[in-house]
Amino acid sequence: MNIWIAIGVTAVGCYAVKLVGLLVPTGVLERPLVKQLAALLPVALLAALTAQQTFADGRVLVVDAKVAGLAAAAVALLLRAPFLLVVAAAVAVTAGVRAMTG
Amino acid sequence: MTSAGSGLTLLQTCALSLLVFTGASQFALVGALAAGGNPFTAAAGAFFLGVRNAFYGLRLSQLLALPRAVRPFAAQWVIDETAAVALAQPTRRSARIGFTVTGLTLYVLWNLTTLLGAAGAEAIGDTDAWGLDAAGPAVFLALLAPMLRTTTERAVAGLAVVLGIGLLPVLPAGVPVLVAALAAPAVLWAGGRRGGRTTDVKPADDESGDDR
């Protein structure tokens, strides 16, 4: 049930911001500070989420095969690999390291 | 795929893609729920990731000049890719076509792959053995990488990582991510104090993510 609440709240919230952009008059959101903040918020969130999902197991910090997988993804990104290849590299290396280390 | 690995049912996974339809938010929500976060902190993180769509909408509403009655329907398709395609078109007519075609194609494909991925993951069973738990963070990293162009952006990312990891053991699940979001205003404020140096950040021109 909790999951449905979360899905519902997210769906309504994400739809609302999309609609707001189409409806509000220009100028309200065009101020430089607001624009900068809107550009930087996803940067902060994505960075924190990447780090957490790589190193966290619940509320405990761990270093496991995922770290190797994410390193592979980072290398793929530096080589300008397409999106799906980046994700595939992370998955394959993680699975490989897990298979080798037992 | 990742969401089926974190305890959501097939129906819940598909509902997420149909109703939310903005990839980074979906992955964030699923990740927070899997970590045991409560539904509202999880939704808050997902919501903040979706805020940038409002700025695409702002640019698109001038460009497409949609009738008011159509806007609520068009809104669901306001995402990274449709904005990138529509804004790149030379005329209003081709922008409208670009927006509609991109929106429709991505909406259908995204939801089809969600269904296939979720069904596939249920068939596989233990998704961790296949390394699928690395897919979530890899997606975030791939979305993040093209955004790290200026010093300001890198500083925000670095501070957010420190906050997100450092606070994880001490705050309830889902909350550290929200605190890490404060890295954005904090770095802006610190940058402003250092002599009002303005770094060129262009939110709406960002054609980076493979986010939908």
Keywords:
heterodimer; A: 102 residues; mainly alpha; 2 domains; two-stranded antiparallel sheet; 4 helices; 2 strands; 77% helix; B: 212 residues; 12 helices; 0% strand; globular
What does this 3D model show about the protein?
The complex is a heterodimer of chains A (102) and B (212). Chain A has 102 residues and is mainly alpha-helical. Chain A has 2 domains: 1-28; 29-101, no CATH class. Chain A is 77% helix and 4% strand. Chain A has 4 helices and 2 strands. A two-stranded antiparallel ribbon of chain A has the order 1-2. In chain A, a hairpin with a 2-residue loop joins strand 1 and strand 2 (60-61). In chain A, helix 3 (65-78) packs antiparallel against helix 4 (83-101). Chain B is an all-alpha fold and 212 residues long. The interface between A and B is large, with 70 and 101 residues.
Summarize the structure.
Chain A has 102 residues and is mainly α.
Topology:
The complex is a heterodimer of chains A (102) and B (212).
Chain A: H1 2-23, H2 32-55, E1 56-57, E2 60-61, H3 65-78, H4 83-101
Antiparallel strand pairs in A: 1-2
Helix pairs in contact in A: 3-4
Chain B: H1 2-5, H2 10-19, H3 23-34, H4 39-50, H5 52-64, H6 71-74, H7 80-87, H8 92-124, H9 135-144, H10 151-166, H11 175-181, H12 183-193
Question: Count of DSSP helices of chain A?
Answer: 4
Please compute the radius of gyration of chain B using only Cα atoms: 18 Å
Arrangement of strands in the largest sheet of chain A: 1-2
Instruction: Classify the helix fraction of chain B into a percent range.
Output: 55-70%
Domain module count of chain A: 2
- Element-level helix/strand string of chain B: HHHHHHHHHHHH
Structural class of chain A: mainly alpha
Please state the average pLDDT score of chain A. Answer: 85
Q: Can you summarize the main beta sheet of chain B?
A: none
Total count of strands of chain A:
2
Helical percentage of chain A: over 70%
Number of strands of chain B: 0
The protein's oligomeric status is heterodimer
How many helices of chain B in DSSP terms?
12
Shape of chain B: globular
Most extensive protein-chain contact, per-chain counts: A-B, 70 and 101 residues
Coarse shape of chain A: elongated
Helical/strand content category of chain B: mainly alpha
CA radius of gyration of chain A is 19 Å
Sheet with the most strands, sense and barrel status of chain A: 2 strands, antiparallel
